């Protein structure tokens, strides 16, 4: 088990640009090449094309740290700086400008994020009505986003969601939270 965590530590060191094993990328010739003493991450400049060595890790891919990813996306998007390592290139820059812009928007709206702290088993009402409520939510949000219904449809959705079991789920979740709050 110790070796497994040592392995994960090395992989996360790569993500945080703090690795004694992976200074520029995972493997030269796979996700970067050295040209004139500097790493180049452009797949078109890697002989034979880029190969993602992360696909061959125990974890099946290079892990990501979502909130860090958004911060990096914003930094790369707003400063237009070159990526420092293959991780920044592969996970952010190569995704394109719209991806970096979206990550910037998400990162700039962190203050509005609502964290769902419910980690208990599904409540009785969730078991009965959860699937229906989730489907209704996704359909309503998609219809609003794509302009099929006006934004005011959200207010109608909330009333229907509450009347269809959402109000009871909220009550059950709040009761659960009160029961575990002191245990944290």
From TrEMBL:
The superkingdom listed in its UniProt entry is Bacteria
Annotated SUPFAM superfamilies: Periplasmic binding protein-like II
- Give the protein name, as stated in the record: Putative aldouronate transport system substrate-binding protein
